[in-house]
Design brief:
Elements (H helix, E strand, L loop, with lengths): L11 E6 L2 E6 L2 E10 L2 E6 L2 E6 L16 E3 L4 E6 L6 E2 L4 E7 L2 E6 L4 E6 L6 E2 L4 E7 L9
Antiparallel strand pairs: 1-2, 2-3, 3-4, 4-5, 6-13, 7-9, 7-12, 8-11, 9-10, 11-13
């Protein structure tokens, strides 16, 4: 949450159904209301709202794009749209693909300015979390992404 100190919390998800997930925290399992919003998962627990962000192994601040030019799916789901085209020049923040997961649309954005070198998905296909969606080569006037 903006302005609040982040406190790591381990939350295990054991199941999901429309708008709810079965979670376990400190050994207690129960169904709670959830809403996915971008890279945050909002949980409503008896009128108290909490925002969770998935932490990936690796460098701090890692997002869908990595230093090797690979843009990965932030979650598994169905590909609704593919805007990336091999050879196209894209700007940081430009939509490369749209994935539907848990009835929510998630836009996968270019992590930096660059040229699309490959596209690994097609509309209607299923992707697993962290699957390669595309590869980018940074434009010459952009600094190399962090390794």
């Amino acid at each position: 949450m903006a302005g609040a100190a982040a406190t790591p919390v381990e939350l295990r998800v054991h199941g999901r159904r429309d708008g709810e997930v079965a979670c376990e925290h400190d050994g207690v399992r129960r169904w709670i209301d959830v809403l996915a919003d971008g890279d945050e998962l909002w949980i409503d627990d008896d009128g108290h709202a909490f925002a969770f962000v998935e932490v990936h192994a690796g460098a701090s601040g890692e997002d869908a794009g990595s230093g090797d030019g690979i843009v990965r799916a932030p979650m598994g789901g169905r590909v609704l749209a593919v805007a990336a085209v091999v050879g196209a020049v894209v700007r940081k923040g430009e939509t490369l693909a749209v994935i539907e997961a848990m009835k929510m649309e998630h836009r996968v954005l270019a992590p930096y300015d660059g040229t699309v070198r490959s596209v690994g998905v097609q509309v209607g296909g299923q992707v697993a979390q962290r699957a390669i969606l595309a590869t980018l080569e940074p434009t010459s006037n952009e600094p190399e992404p962090a390794q």
